[in-house]
Write a structure and sequence with these properties.
By secondary structure, the protein is an alpha+beta fold. The protein contains twelve helices and twelve strands.
């Protein structure tokens, strides 16, 4: 059993050949049948017209002649048509008169009765001589077309028959068949050859893109596929190039994430190691010195633990395994708790934290994750507020959503960095941020974590406004029960 070709080039070639060859064959067959029908129709018309003319002459001759038989024989002798054999039969099928048979012109018995007793006479006498009829009879020299027309003379019934050889017509049709037998396969072969080269030319851009794509790896993601080959293939190349662009951005982000994570982890680990080395290098130290060294190591360990926890949370979120518990909570209580929790940090920086408004907000979600979101936003606002400034926390319900705003009086965020601040390890004041020590952040992961927590709860975190003296981060969550997916799986 023949297998369907596996390559697209051969499949396109076969389809092209079939789609062109089938109409070509149908056209050749249709043309042949139409031409054959036309020739046979014209032959039948010629025989019919000739017999009508012969019958008229016979009727006119009957009026001028003394007898019917004499009139018939006289008309047969006088009226002749080229290549047409005419015979007049009586009601019993006997030959009254006829012209010489086309295949008995020379050296044959010209007696009508003897000549007509062969294949032609046998075929005609088997038909009904009282009806108009046209038949095809096979003779020794090929097929003949025979027309039978009834005729009445002087009260007697006769039949006028006309026999015409189809040898010339069959010869023409045979030449046409031979021509089509050569031309049609030749055209199909040409179509297949042309289809193959057209398919090869059309698929050349795909081969070029495939070869180029095979060369692209993690080290050269900047390379792109050639955009060519018509709108369809160019569109495919653009889609793949866009995919490569996203992969490149993802790889760049991943490399940057790993570099930043390594840098952030290196600082507390270096502090731990150096402080331990210094402590162990001295044989005698006072209790205060030991306590001071342990305190430094404890703070470094806490910072290290916090960074690791943040990285683990982001990794879970990226893999779709950050699960938010569904439990009834009140968002205004979380806001009150977070506001009270950051007041010691705010007092240390001489920043006031004010809760301007809080509405009753029943919700279903994870209190721990949402509390962490609020603490991250408040910590970020306190760090960027000037001494003596204030951080305002507001809460409202609008259009079926809860909106929590955290507003500080800092210097604002430049327009070109307003979206980038939600990326990991991004800090606008990196030198100051690395020196900050708080219970909630310090590695540039706070806003990235806050946004992912909001998304897990079916909400979003955006920078609502930013200008010198006012920066507003807004958390929007669906009011009532949790509207979005509780967990990413």
């Amino acid at each position: 059993m023949a297998r369907w070709p596996s390559t697209l080039r051969w499949r396109l070639t076969l389809w092209y050949t079939a789609l062109l060859g089938a109409p070509l064959i149908a056209l050749a067959v249709g043309y042949y049948l139409f031409f054959a029908r036309t020739l046979y129709t014209r032959t039948d018309q010629f025989i019919s017209d000739a017999l009508v003319a012969f019958s008229r002459e016979l009727v006119a001759e009957r009026r001028a002649s003394s007898g019917i038989t004499a009139a018939i024989r006289s008309t047969v002798d006088e009226v002749r048509f080229r290549d047409l054999h005419i015979a007049i039969l009586d009601s019993a099928g006997g030959v009254v008169a006829m012209t010489p048979l086309p295949d008995l012109d020379a050296g044959a018995d010209r007696r009508p009765s003897t000549a007509f007793d062969g294949w032609l006479g046998t075929a005609i006498r088997q038909r009904d001589l009282t009806k108009h009829e046209t038949i095809t009879v096979d003779g020794p020299r090929g097929p003949f077309r025979v027309a039978i027309r009834p005729l009445q003379l002087g009260g007697q019934h006769f039949a006028v028959t006309g026999t015409y050889s189809l040898a010339d017509i069959e010869g023409v049709l045979e030449r046409i068949r031979r021509m089509f037998a050569v031309v049609v396969p030749l055209l199909i072969v040409c179509a297949a050859t042309g289809g193959y080269f057209l398919a090869a030319r059309s698929l050349a851009p795909i081969a070029s893109m495939a070869s180029r794509a095979a060369e692209i790896g993690a080290t050269n993601l900047r390379d792109r596929l050639p955009v060519s080959g018509g709108e369809e293939l160019a569109g495919l190349a653009r889609v793949v190039n866009d995919l490569l662009g996203r992969l490149e951005a993802s790889f760049v982000q991943q490399r940057r994430f790993m570099a930043d994570a390594s840098h952030e982890l290196r600082t507390p680990t270096a502090i731990l190691r150096s402080e331990a080395d210094v402590t162990l290098a001295q044989t005698h130290r006072t209790e205060e010195e030991y306590r001071a060294a342990v305190t430094i190591m404890r703070d470094a360990a806490r910072r290290l633990t916090r960074i690791v926890d943040d990285l683990f949370l982001l990794a879970r979120a990226d893999s779709g395994n950050l699960v938010a518990r569904r439990e009834p909570i009140y968002l205004e209580e979380l806001v009150h708790d977070a506001t009270r929790a950051v007041r010691p940090l705010a007092d240390a920086r001489s920043v006031r934290v004010e809760l301007s408004e809080a509405v009753e907000a029943p919700f279903e979600g994870d209190a721990d994750l949402l509390g962490r979101l609020l603490l991250n936003l408040l910590d970020n606002a306190i760090k960027h507020s000037p001494a003596g400034g204030s951080v305002e926390v507001g809460m409202a319900r609008r259009n079926g959503h809860y909106e929590i705003d955290v507003i500080d009086e800092g210097a604002g965020i430049p327009p070109d960095a307003q979206e980038r601040i939600f990326e990991r390890f991004v800090r606008l004041d990196a030198a100051r941020a690395r020196g900050e020590q708080s219970s909630t952040s310090g590695a540039g992961l706070g806003l990235a974590i806050a946004r992912r927590i909001a998304e897990v709860h079916g909400g979003r975190l955006v920078l609502a406004a930013s200008r010198p003296g006012r920066t507003d981060f807004r958390v929007t969550l669906p009011a009532g029960t949790l509207a979005g997916p509780v967990a990413q799986k």
